[in-house]
Every structure is written in C-alpha cells, then in structure tokens.
Amino acid sequence: MTDTGSRLPHAPGPGCPAHAGAVRLGGLEYQQTPAQLYRTLRREHGAVAPVLLDGDIPAWLVLGYAEVAYVTGHDELFARDSRRWNQWENIPADWPLLPFVGYQPSVLFTEGEEHRRRAGVITEALEGVDQFQLSRDCRQLADRLIASFAGSGRAELMSMYAHALPMRAAVQMCGMPHTGEATVQLVEDLRISLDAAEGDDPVAAYTRVGERIRQLVEEKRERPGPDVTSRMLLHPAGLTDEEVVQDLISVIAAAQQPTANWICNTLRLLLTDERFAVSVSGGRLSVGEALNEVLWLETPTQNFIGRWAVRDTQLGGRLIRAGDCLVLGLAAANTDPQIWPDSFAGAESSAHLSFSSGEHRCPYPAPLLADVIARTAVETLLERLPDLVLAVEPEQLTWRPSVWMRGLHSLPVEFTPVVR
C-alpha cells in the first residue's frame, strides 16, 4: 500500500491544481486504452494527478488504491457537498458534467447524520427486494429478450440484451412498468445523463428524468405497492416527495447503466479470453469468476466525481486546497501496482473499489442485487444459446469514449438459430 502522506508535496503552480502537466480527461486514449493512460499518469505524477475536466476545469484524479480508500474513509477532509467547489464561478450553465456535480437535495450530496438517514431509507427499501424473486424475474425478462432474437442466429447484445435487461429489472423493482414508451425514454435519458454521446444534451436529459420520477412518486403516494418507491415513501424517516425523487434517480441510475456495462463487459471477457473458452457453455463457476474479474480490470464505473476538500490538506504528496475537486479513479485504483505487483488481479478477491468504499459507497444490499441481475443475465444467455460466438474479431470491438463509464459500443454475436 502507498503512504498517502509520506511524500513531500509538489510545488503548486499558478492556478493550482491546473499547473503545468495537467492532463485533459478524454480523447482517444480513454476510448480504447484507459489503463495505459492511468499507468502514464501514475508514472509521471504519482498517486494523485492534476487533470482538466470538460472546459479545462481543474481537478485532481486519485489513482492510488490506498489514496482512494483514504479519501472515501475521511469525510471530514473530503466531503460530498459540491457547493464547496472553488470553481463554480467558471462553470457555465450548460456544462456537460452538471448532472454529476450540480448540487441536488439527493443522498449523493448529503453528509453526516443526514446522509445516514437518507442512506438508511434506501438500504431498508432495497432490503425488501426478495433476491430469489428478483432472480426469477430476471430470468423471465432474459427469456423474453432472448426469444426476440433467438430465431435469427445473430444479435447485437449491448442494445438488445445487456442494456435492456437491467433497465427492465430496475424500473420493475421501483414500481414502474418495464415496457412502454415512457420507460424507454426514461432509460435513454439516464444513458445520456451518465454517458452522453456527441450531440446529446445531458442537462436536458437529466431534467426529463426528474420529471418522470416525480410522476412515479405522485402515483405511488396515492397507490402504494410492494416496490422500492412505496417503501421509501412509507418509511418512518418521513422523506419528502422531492427527497424520494432525488434518491430514486440515484438508485435507478446506479442499477441500470453500470449493471448493463457489467453484463456486457463480462460477456466480452467470456467470449474473447481463452481461459474461459472451454467452460463458457453453461459454465457457472466461470461466470462468477468473470463477473468478479471485470470488476477489477474493466469496472463499469471507471471514474467517479467526486469529493471536495473541506480544508487545505495533503494527499499522495500533493497539496490539496480547500474546495478542490477530487475525481475517484476507481479503475486506476483497482489496477494499482502497489496492490498487484505482478500486474494481475486475482478473480477470487473481492477487495476491489468498484462499488467505492466508506460511508458513501454503494449502499447495501445494492451490490448484491446488481450481482443477481448480472449473473442471471449472463447465465441465462449462455444456457439458451450455448454456441454463442463473436460475430467480429475481438480487436474490432470498440469502447465508448467515456471518462466515467466503461462499456462497449456494441457486442455483435452469432449462434445457431433457436426456433420455438
């Protein structure tokens, strides 16, 4: 493990942290080889690197495993309320990262006792989800999706399966119909908010997400049911409707896009890595190993923004000023050579940071529910289409050029048509 405070701080330059050597987060390196970029940043800057966000807004990227764990474990130094940011005067109203950092009355930005109250409501609402029933529901959803393309012998799994299944499972858990135009639009807006492509408007998309969730909360306030939304509304903590809206957005967003990428990244590993080739057909143990290895090496959320320094402090040999923004480099931390000196992450270990850590980590039992959805999706597909193979060469698969999410543009496959 690296020592977060043992090295002497680098001398800050004018406009620190945007001093000489700051690297823009984005570009072609992020599209295909972010791991190489992380290695370069670590070699040139150490465990904490000066970076530039969209519009050349300065921030720090925390690359080290120990440093990420330190930041997430010390809320008194690195807090979640983004109103502390010392760059707000430089942020335009249409800044594409506003859905991530613009303060909302959401559990994501609360601190201390208020965070524990809000997170407790989410935890208890999610604990009401029967994991065995969720697995059965996901299997039924998977069967329906597979049936829609099984007879053709070809499919594009990202859009037709990996993206669709967790979407339907997430909205169903929250009490929405898993089909219909309103649901499809909600999920598309969530995608734009989290992983905008060229020409997308993430700020407008996030606004539409809020409007649809407010409608759901109004419906459940009048007619509660056996779902996550109703349990949040009926919880004795007495959250307001707006608090429930904001926290539901966080729950649904976390359940949908990252889980979709987890499924697709795992399928890619199973279909391209010879270590899994012998047992990919119905190989349940291999599926479990692949799911965990993906969390280490191709984690669905590769960077998370962020934390804001409460006061001047040091981290990884850097002088961090009060109000500076820190981006949690989850993917870089998971492959930190300080914890994997041989550049190999063992699939048997679950000490990755893919669900973050500390008080603001993904609340229990959300990681377990995501695992149920992802595992059921992968296993059901391999059972129904046992001779599944890539329809292109592995090197033709391309990653979305996102700084934040790690997911493929598409995953085209071929198989023997199944006629029912």
UniProtKB/TrEMBL annotation:
Family: Belongs to the cytochrome P450 family.
Protein name: Cytochrome P450
Family matches, as InterPro entries: Cyt_P450_B, Cyt_P450_sf
